[in-house]
Design goal:
Its main location: membrane. The protein contains 5 helices and no strands. It is mainly alpha-helical. The two termini are 31 Å apart.
């Protein structure tokens, strides 16, 4: 399999997950915000988070779909997965009540399954960024000849 194909497949996986979850959250913002209000970490900022997170997910998916912005989109997707994973760690370690503000299929996962899902996507994001960066260096020639 070509390395570019691997990057494309990983990109498509991120696009599917982020568009799916972003749209699911946007179509039911009141419920998503209510779930965020149950979080001891996000309670005070639930309204802005309820708007920003799904728009960010969809925006990142769009970036990944644009060839010239793919690397930036993959970086942002991986960064967002780091934030989501840190949230899972914090909420499962320090909260007595563990609310889930996920959408769709992800809502039916246990916290352990969700953590594993996030770690897999973190690894996929790192792999895709690494391959993309290495491949772009090959096609653009030596660093000193780039403009």
């Amino acid at each position: 399999m070509k390395k570019e194909t691997i990057v494309d497949i990983i990109g498509y996986l991120f696009i599917i997950v982020f568009v799916y979850t972003g749209v699911a959250k946007l179509t039911d913002i009141p419920n998503f915000e209510r779930q965020l209000q149950d979080s001891p970490v996000l309670r005070d900022i639930s309204w802005p988070v309820a708007i920003v997170v799904p728009l960010l997910e969809i925006g990142i998916a769009v970036l990944i779909a644009i060839p010239k912005a793919k690397l930036r989109g993959l970086f942002m997707a991986t960064s967002l997965m780091i934030i989501f994973t840190l949230y899972i760690i914090i909420i499962t370690q320090f909260a007595s009540h563990i609310p889930c503000a996920c959408s769709g299929v992800l809502q039916s996962m246990t916290w352990t399954q969700h953590f594993i899902f996030n770690i897999v996507f973190l690894i996929l994001g790192i792999i895709a960024m690494t391959i993309h960066k290495l491949e772009s260096r090959k096609t653009s020639g030596p660093m000193w000849s780039r403009t």
